[in-house]
Design goal:
The protein has 122 residues and is mostly helical. Helix content is 61%, strand content 0%.
């Protein structure tokens, strides 16, 4: 965890201890995740149309493929096919990292985190 996350966690714990979150408006009600405030105004209608058509952003589609490939790897017995799927998974992970323009969060892919940490400590 980086220093900013630690500071944020500390501030949140202090606010909980003071009771700042005890009587918030809408407390106990489900969040409205359909809120489109974060989407620029000129893109809202396009996003709504794509969402209603069942389309998702390319990054999420690729992440979905990565998760499906990881599950598929557990069921493959043939070594050649398994290696082929591992290569495909590695390519998709690399592509996902490029699309995000920021480092991939290895917490979501623990088997790769262990391999990378092992290589760095050698």
């Amino acid at each position: 965890m980086d220093i900013f996350s630690k500071i944020a966690e500390q501030k949140i714990r202090e606010a909980i201890e003071r009771g700042d979150f005890d009587r918030l408006e809408n407390s106990g009600r489900p969040l409205n995740l359909e809120d489109e405030i974060w989407i620029p105004e000129d893109l809202r209608s396009a996003y709504r149309i794509l969402k209603n058509a069942g389309c998702i952003p390319p990054e999420l589609e690729l992440r979905k493929e990565v998760l499906n490939l990881r599950e598929l790897l557990d069921t493959i017995d043939d070594d050649k096919e398994r290696i082929r799927k591992i290569r495909e998974l590695n390519f998709k992970l690399m592509k996902l990292g490029e699309m995000r323009k920021r480092p991939l969060n290895l917490d979501q892919f623990p088997e790769y985190e262990e391999k990378i940490c092992g290589r760095l400590t050698e």
